[in-house]
Amino acid sequence: MTYTGRTLGIGLMNGEPFAFYLLCSRSFPKRKAIFKGRAVYIENMTETDNPYVSYPVVRLLDDYAVVTNGLQTDFIAQTLEWESPRKALVHVLDALDYERDSYSTPRIAGIVEHGNGKGWLGFAGRDEFWVKSLELKDGKAFVTATYNLSFAELDFPAFESAEELAEKAIELPFEKKVLAIGVAAEKKGWGLAVSP
Ligand SMILES: NC(=O)c1ncn([C@@H]2O[C@H](COP(=O)(O)O)[C@@H](O)[C@H]2O)c1NC=O
Questions:
Q1: I need a surface site. Which of 27, 54, 76, 192 has the fewest CB within 10 A?
Q2: Any coiled-coil ranges, and where (predicted)?
């Protein structure tokens, strides 16, 4: 197994878009996900002055769901009010850039659109920067992660709800898994769940 750190994916299941966030962590395994309305936050439970380990992780809009590994979540969601998903990722990831920690941890982000088979992924690392507009494929997920992965396409197991999606995500074969969040488009709005 590979240590990928924070890992996120976007895909399509039974014609509906989904996104997942898999929080893997060696250094800060005590975290929890807090749901507040149409947002989810990661809260670190141990004493630290590290500014990168508690943050908004998901924000749901009528048309889009945004998932990232840092404070860029809220900036991207706000930018979607007037820019395309691609431009929102380019502008916000370029502005904030990678994290200034001892690993130069990349900022990663994913966006899916309600009622649409398109998705977007972005990656801002010290030596690598990209934004991809992707045609999502049923039963597959496009994935990016902070370490040792860059970009990959995975077969994603079938699920029927955001709860099941989060359960499938926490079963993915990556190291040091802490929790997984599932975001699945429903007929009206988005389903949201965490596992465990
Ligand atoms: N978003 C997160 O949950 C998160 N967790 C840890 N980091 C950063 O990544 C560094 C390495 O963490 P780890 O050893 O858990 O992979 C941490 O010192 C911190 O600066 C994070 N920053 C970005 O992924």
A1: 27
A2: none
Nearest residue (by CA) to ligand 1, atom 23, is 69
Residue closest via CA to ligand 1's atom 6 equals 53
Model confidence pTM above 0.95: yes
Q: Residue whose CA is closest, atom 2 of ligand 1?
A: 53
State if residue 28 touches ligand 1 by the CB under 6 angstroms criterion: yes
Closest residue by CA, ligand 1 atom 12: 27
144 lines ligand 1 (CB under 6 A): no
Any atom of ligand 1 within 6 Å of the Cβ of 175: no
Query: What structural domains does the chain harbor?
Result: 6-195 (3.60.20.20)
List b or e across 48-80, with b for residues whose CB sees 16 or more CB atoms inside 10 angstroms: eeeebbbbbbbbbbeebbbbbbbbbbbbbbebb
